[in-house]
Design brief:
Elements lengths: L25 H12 L10 H13 L3 E5 L2 H11 L7 E4 L5 H9 L3 E4 L11 H5 L6 E7 L8 H10 L3 E5 L7 E2 L2 E2 L6 E5 L12 E5 L2 H11 L23 H11 L2 H19 L5 E2 L7 E2 L5 E5 L1 H4 L3 H10 L5 E2 L5 H4 L1 H4 L26 H9 E4 L7 H24 L1
Parallel strand pairs: 2-3, 2-4, 4-5, 5-8
Antiparallel strand pairs: 1-9, 6-7, 6-11, 8-9, 10-12, 12-14, 13-14
Helix pairs in contact: 1-8, 2-8, 3-4, 3-7, 9-15
The structure holds pyridoxal-5'-phosphate.
């Protein structure tokens, strides 16, 4: 049996892991200086936000782009612009960031969770359809970890059932289906510019959409319901100030010039990893839908715990000992981990909106079994454009070694 490094054997890799590259440089500095020289940092008066939105529209192929202060703000704005309100249900993914749910709950609607495909990690038309009720108004699909969801059947389902479709692309900059950017399939696509995403402006968000009315509604929803185009301030509804500043837009403008290079590098590394993993029994790469192009914000592989007789945590400890960074799991399913969902206490001294729900939502263990299993058995490996094939090949060698060890041990028992 191959002696693992964790048992005192030789390590697959002794070379230290490469640090992240420098993300910001002279391009960002030049844009920032120009922004300051305008003598205004207000997005509506300066040029950087306008230019950045035009650039985003070109890069992703959207008709309209609305800028805002974060990915969460983009999602809240899009949810509001869909007309989501009290009494509505919004179907979404149980594996996500708090930002996906924030707008639903703030607007007084109820988040309903559809299960994921066990290999693709994303919700599907079939799992969404099971959750549709007469109260459903919208669906928020999360393209998780840079892997595009099988979006075309979801678009057809939403059209057929007259549901609004929002795509949460915070983790999936540049991911595509049949050459088209995710985010441009539904009514609204939401992107994050927070510091941990493919590109960063420190913080920031973008809503992409089509059609003048959706565009106008998205603007109103992120800027206090002030209509900057007409100057009208009738305040038809309550809306927060989620404005971006010219400083964020300046950095985002420069970062958008780099996004295709960053996502292409991550795509190549991730695909190399998937090709190698397919040859290793007991370990599964993520399934990408037909025509899909993944940009791997991080990389989730799954351990077949029955076949290997080992859990993800032990597997990761063995990987780490071989000199490869990886950790078990990602987040927990949000319906189990968010206290405000479990206790139905989103707002202080009130159980609204859950108390007003016609049908009380069920947030118990077992409602999305695939999501629970995937999160229990996944190994989370960081992919980055600063890495080379060498890191991928070393990771593959370590996975192959560790998996072979546990397969043999299982057989020997
Ligand atoms: C990061 C993230 C968000 C929120 O973005 P912020 O800019 O941090 O508000 C929303 N959804 C997903 C899936 C994310 O990963």
């Amino acid at each position: 049996m191959t002696k693992l490094a964790i048992d005192g054997g030789p390590k697959v890799r002794t070379k230290p892991w490469p640090p992240r590259n420098k993300r910001f440089g002279k391009e960002e500095l030049r844009e920032l200086k120009e922004a300051l020289d305008q003598n205004t940092l207000f997005y509506h008066h300066g040029q950087k936000t306008k230019k950045m939105c035009a650039k985003m529209a070109r890069v992703c192929g959207a008709e309209f782009v609305v800028p805002c202060s974060s990915g969460s703000a983009a999602l809240h704005g899009a949810t509001k612009a869909c007309g989501v309100g009290p009494g509505d249900e919004v179907i979404t993914c149980p594996i996500t960031d708090a930002g996906t749910l924030l707008g639903i709950v703030y607007e007084g609607a109820i988040p309903i969770f559809a299960d994921i495909d066990p290999l693709a990690y994303n919700i599907t038309a079939a799992t969404i359809e099971k959750r549709i009720t007469p109260r459903t108004r919208a669906v928020i699909v999360v393209h998780l970890a840079g892997c595009p969801a099988d979006i075309k059947p979801i678009v057809r389902l939403c059209k057929r059932r007259k549901l609004k479709l929002i795509e949460d692309c915070a983790q999936s900059w540049g991911a595509k289906v049949d050459g088209q950017w995710v985010g441009t399939f539904g009514d609204f696509g939401c992107f994050s510019l927070n510091d941990f995403k493919h590109i960063s402006a420190g913080d920031g968000g973008l809503i992409v959409t089509h059609g003048k009315e959706q565009y106008r509604m998205a603007w109103l929803s992120i800027d206090k319901c002030y209509d900057r185009m007409t100057g009208e301030r009738g305040l038809d509804f309550v809306a927060p100030n989620y404005r971006i500043t010219e400083l964020q837009s300046a950095v985002a403008l420069a970062q958008l010039g780099k996004v295709n290079k960053i996502t292409a590098a991550r795509h190549k590394l991730g695909e190399r990893l998937s090709r190698g993993l397919r040859k290793i029994p007991g370990v599964n790469p993520p399934k990408i839908p037909m025509g899909g192009y993944a940009t791997y914000w991080f990389y989730l592989m799954q351990i077949d715990t029955k076949r290997l007789g080992v859990d993800a945590k032990t597997f990761c400890q063995a990987m780490n000992a071989e000199g490869i960074p990886a950790h078990a799991g990602y987040v927990d399913p949000v319906y189990l981990s968010y206290k405000y969902l479990r206790r139905k206490t989103a707002f202080h001294h009130s159980r609204w909106p859950f108390s007003a729900a016609k049908v009380k939502p069920n947030y118990k263990k077992g409602i999305c079994p695939n999501a629970e299993t995937v999160l229990r058995n996944c190994v989370n490996f960081g992919v980055g454009e600063w890495m080379s094939n060498r890191e991928i090949d070393d990771a593959l060698a370590a996975v192959a070694k560790v998996a072979a060890h546990y397969r043999e041990r299982k057989r020997g028992r």
